[in-house]
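Database export, one record per block. Field names are fixed; values are copied verbatim from the stored entry.
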Amino acid sequence: MDEQQAPLVIVVIGPPGAGKGTQSSILANLLGVPHISIGSLLSSYARDKSEVGVHLTGMMASGTLVPDTLVRELLATRISEPDCASGIILDGFPRTLMQAELLESGLSRPPFHANNLRENLVALHLRVQNSTIVKRLSGRRICSRCNATYHQETQPPRVSGECDFDGSALTVREDDRIATVLKRLRIYEQETAPILNHYAEKASLLEVDGEQPKENITQEIVVAIQSMCRIPTAGAK
């Protein structure tokens, strides 16, 4: 990579259940850059005994949304670490146009200096139909003890309703109930359209069919990124 070129930022966008976390993890391994999940980042800070950690714990326990500015500051601290020098994959941020603008201001700091977003940021949009999302999430079951994950159709337990590992009852998360999934999808559609338009104008927007098998999705993404000649893909086949 040219020493003067800012590291690449890949922002993964998609509805709940689109496979953002799965693809982010796979790409992080293939491309040799960190996968930064905003949910995991906030949880790690919340476990701290620092003032910020205690503050975050209180907000998350009460269901209060973490302010965008605080998320940006925590993210800015994370991306300043040495392992981000070659680039990052962001999962879960931004979700709104305001968050996208906050991210861009945060990327003005070293090591990124991403003033030219078209050269330094790829927005990866996983397109998945609402009916597919509802089917994926409403069929998901979680072990009440060890949190092992199953799916009624694609990954059922050996014994219906029981965890393969400890025999505990499988439950449905509140977020996976059909009414909740539909509500989350409505919010996503309202918030995401402006982000996609924003990135289509200011950055490289990569549209990918998220209905494909995950291996096909990964291959399509890697080929597209390689064609952009942005970051090393030594791990990619």
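Remark 1: The chain has nine helices and eight strands.
Remark 2: The beta strands are 8-13, 35-37, 87-91, 121-127, 140-143, 149-151, 170-171, 204-209.
End of record.
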